[in-house]
Amino acid sequence: MPSIPSRLVIASRKSPLAMWQANHVRAHLVRLYPQCEVAILGLSTRGDEVLDRSLSKIGGKGLFVKELENALAEGRADLAVHSMKDLPMILPEGFVLAAVGEREDARDAFVSNHYADFHALPAGSVVGSSSLRRESQIRARFPKLKIEPLRGNVETRLRKLDEGQYAAIILAASGLKRLDLAQRIRVALPVTDSLPAPGQGALGIEIAAARDELAAQLASFNHHDTAVCVRAERAVSRELGGSCQVPLGAYATASGNTVTLTGFVATPDGTRMARAAISGPADDPEALGLALAVKLRAEGAAEIVAALETGLEQ
Questions:
Q1: For 103, which of 112, 156, 167, 202 could close a Cys bridge (C-beta 3.0–4.6 Å)?
Q2: What class is the 236-313 domain?
Q3: Active-site positions?
Q4: CATH superfamily of 108-188
């Protein structure tokens, strides 16, 4: 077993869900290294502070991690815990992903106080969503619904629903379950209807690239099948230029040495969508992700992404 320092500091966002995630990793480390003091450094990020605009308009998911990476670079923290769906597809130079924990429920969740599912919503009902990925899939299936932005932590989003600002909202099932709010889920949406974001439901540990000894100490947190699936999903997004401006989903499952990967790229209004699936060996998940990107391009993904990029430049 690798030696462990006498103290480790985990950098985390301050939201209740982020702190749950940090405490989950802390508990693992304390069980493994009871002689080590493990502290949590709670930080506020720009992604948490700017709530009046969608992520696609203020800089993307990187706004949730920059302050945490600064703490790593400055030596104020040893590791940072992220929700993998919030971690940019390309890490800045000097940082590495040391481990990916076992995935919780990866599905999106339909949450409503008055309606059982999407089919029960009257035309014109307002649905709150934080992502273009979710929005595009909802609009493709239910074009008569009205999709409006929904930002803030899980509790804030539920409060806005309870205040009547939305008829329904869509959240990650994993976050609700981790916060003991599973009773708020009306329907966990099948991945065939709402394909998750790459890495959704999984936790990642980021460290400074030079900390080889720390990487060895964190290896036991890594869940092999989850890590393989997340690597494949993230490869699709990297290859297609996935960002908050591009509605893109990717979800993989592992069975033995075989990984099955599904992905899609769409316009925000859901009128154009490229979707494809592929299976292959688990020993090279990035290659599988690249192969799926090729299939998606053949289905029209390249034209969709180019049109979206052109629109952003205008």
A1: 202
A2: alpha beta
A3: 86
A4: Periplasmic binding protein-like II (3.40.190.10)
